[in-house]
Amino acid sequence: MKIRLDILRKKRGGEPYLQSVLFEYSDPKTTVAAALTEINADPECKDIEGKPIGKIKWECSCLQKKCGACAMVIGGRPSLACDSVLSSLGERVRIEPLRKFPVIEDLTVDRSAVFDRLRDMQVWLDGQAQNDETTTASAYEASRCLQCGCCLEVCPNFCVDDTFVGMAAAVPASRLIAQTDRKQSKELYDLYRKRVYEGCGKSLACRNICPAGIDIDGLLVSSNAAAVWKRKRKRG
Amino acid sequence: MNGVVIIGAGLSGLSAAIALAENNVQSYLVSLQPSERAQSVLAEGGINAALDTMGENDSIENHFEDTMRGGAYLADPNAVDALTRSAPETVSRLIKLGAALNVKGSQPVLRNFGGQKKKRTAFAKSSTGKIIMTALIDETRKYEASGLIKRLPHHELIRLLTKDGSCTGARIRDTYTGELTDLHAQVIICSGGLNGFFPEMTTGTTQNTGSCAAMLFSMGVRFSNLEMIQYHPTTIGISGKRCLVTEAARGEGGRLWIMTKEDKPWYFMEEKYLELGNLMPRDVVSREMFFVRRRDDTTGDVYLNMTEIPEQVWKSRLSDLREEIIKYTGDDPKNTPIAVHEGIHYFMGGIDVDDRHRTSLKGLYAAGECCSQYHGANRLGGNSMLGAVFGGRRAAETALTTDLCEITQTPFTGEDEFAAEPSEQLIRQERDILLSALGIVRNEADINRAIAALDELGSALNSPERARVMLGRAMLISARERRESRGAHYREDYPGTDESLRKKSVAYVSGNEVHTELRDIPERRTANEDQA
């Protein structure tokens, strides 16, 4: 089997350029991650014009969609390279870095903003978690977030410097909202209302994009109820 | 403010950083990737503690004894004593931090795991590592906001800084800019296992390159038990790596079989090991799988039959595992047995530390899988996360008893021989050589051939490459010199266990040569001696 990979590359300080590689593989389960690994392991590898490819910079770690490192845009869709099987991508596919983050080199982007927003949102525990059968399901689901950035890539309301923090911060916040009450985590509850609830345009673009398949809708409904509506009801 | 530099931001690194922050000591947390991408998030089955919430009269002493026996009595009993004694508190602390473990009421549910007769393993379905990491990362963030923890993702250790035989800091590189910086402080290494010596052949991550360990070894830091490599019995091959099928699958009722030539499934573990059956320690199960496949009266792969696991257990405890298996094999394990194979999963050997996690170099500590501690010749499932969380804290507590200084940093603009990259080609050549001799069943002739092959890898190697070859050589020599079978180390030319060799193997570099020797394992101290 053969596929043409059109890879959007960029060297440090340079301009972006497209480089195409014909990649041959025999195992139908071969992923984009495996293809990039193999290309990088072969110092003789050339592009379709016969030019040397050199090492393609990209980030990966677990190779089994549990860490979120290898998020990139594959065939126009933000995906994990380790979760993108070549045989499902046809004969030609475009591979680009995530577009909402600064490109460091090739497919590597600086996702510091994702982690900065978590800090801005004060996603941490003050005091002790309420950890029992009533909170475990939500806390478990929220704990699974990979911080890959795929949901932010498709979100029409998220940009790196905006107030709205996106689901990559809202989902982890949901764990603490599930395991604490308003009194214990007042700042977090308030920040959730301001920086998640009031910024989310409910486009639902993130609904089917999460590589971990997290029930974002369900977590938002629970967190909105706790952080927004219960207070409103109380006031009313 | 005094501080410590931590290399690695997985379970042990976070645990060390939090322990330091609780004592108002700053840490710089240096890692190639953010904690969210650390290998610890892959840990699946659970974490052991004799919490006895299942009414089985479990005890700390049982946990101690199982760990020592599982490790073929090669672990330091004083370290294991401290580990198992602290385990209930370690797990309780995680629950207070909100780690969403499976609970009944507010008590953790415990499951069976290999090599243990009592239910002792707390878990979060089969994503325990990810769930615990999330709780620890959130706790770290709190201290990050107050400046007590400074996370330095996309940074890697280039070399240790040393002076007069002590560690005085770490030279690190920003992988985004290429800039080198010297951090001056004591150092805790939490860099994970040696997966990077076996790319594509382990259940680990690509971030665990092994380069850090190789550099430390070549700089003279002492390593131990390098021959002890754990092959997990149940892995499946996926694109670019081995994927773990957690031991919890067997803990919850999964059974191993192989087809006989008479076309009957043979449940070989249950037949041979009446008490623990499929839940014998991993070294035993992997070896049995290896041998039953080679028999004349069997055919094909070993299969893991999970079809008898009750629906409720799938739903509440293994739903994530089921999803994963369906994704990678196309088969639903609820209905179809899955072909499984042994795969490299854990390195019991690593940086040699004492029971307070001090290395052979003053001012340098190590915790987590990068160090050789707690697991002896074979690690029990559920003890790795425990060892990492506890070990990180223990290393930090030891550092706290010393004269710490403020972390200072200076840019380094010179040339550093360790700043070069090892070539992929060399890494793969070395992998193939090591695999040829460090499989489940070993013998002296294969090991000698592998050592000779390493010698032929060439003299035009850069420093990181030379360091890697040195550490690979140490693994092979350690395996050759242990002329017995013990735990994960099985020698077909020495199939018996020789009690005179119940010692740890130690390896170090001196004068550019690899040296190995066997050293005594300490006796277990009494409670009175411990207090003293």
Short description:
The complex is a heterodimer of chains A (236) and B (532). With 236 residues, chain A is of the alpha+beta class.
Structural class of chain B: alpha+beta
Number of distinct beta strands of chain B = 28
CATH topology of the largest domain in chain A: Fumarate Reductase Iron-sulfur Protein, Chain B, domain 2
Measured distance between first and last alpha carbons of chain B: 31 Å
Radius of gyration of chain B from CA coordinates: 22 Å
Overall pLDDT score of chain B:
97
Output the helix-strand order of chain A: EEHEEEEEHHHHHH
Q: Which spans of chain A of ≥5 residues are poorly predicted at pLDDT below 50?
A: 232-236
Oligomer: heterodimer
Shape of chain A: elongated
* CATH evolutionary superfamily of the domain at 232-344 in chain B: Succinate dehydrogenase/fumarate reductase flavoprotein, catalytic domain
Largest sheet of chain A: 5 strands, mixed
CATH class of the largest domain in chain A, please?
Answer: Mainly Alpha
Structure description:
- The complex is a heterodimer of chains A (236) and B (532).
- Chain A is of the alpha+beta class and 236 residues long.
- Chain A contains 7 helices and 7 strands, in the order ββαβββββαααααα.
- Chain A has helices at 32-41, 112-120, 136-143, 150-154, 167-179, 186-197, 216-235, and strands spanning 2-9, 17-24, 71-74, 77-80, 92-96, 103-105, 108-109.
- In chain A, β6 (103-105) and β7 (108-109) form a beta hairpin.
- In chain A, α2 packs parallel to α5.
- The longest helix of chain A is centred in the C-terminal third of the chain and has 20 residues, at 216-235.
- Mean pLDDT of chain A is 94; it is low at 232-236.
- In chain B, strands 1, 2, 8, 12, 21 and 23 form a 6-stranded mixed β-sheet that branches. Chain B has a 6-stranded antiparallel β-sheet with strand order 15-14-19-18-16-17. Chain B has a 5-stranded mixed β-sheet with strand order 22-20-13-27-28.
- Chain B contains 15 helices and 28 strands.
- The mean pLDDT of chain B is 97.
- The interface between A and B is large, with 53 and 52 residues.
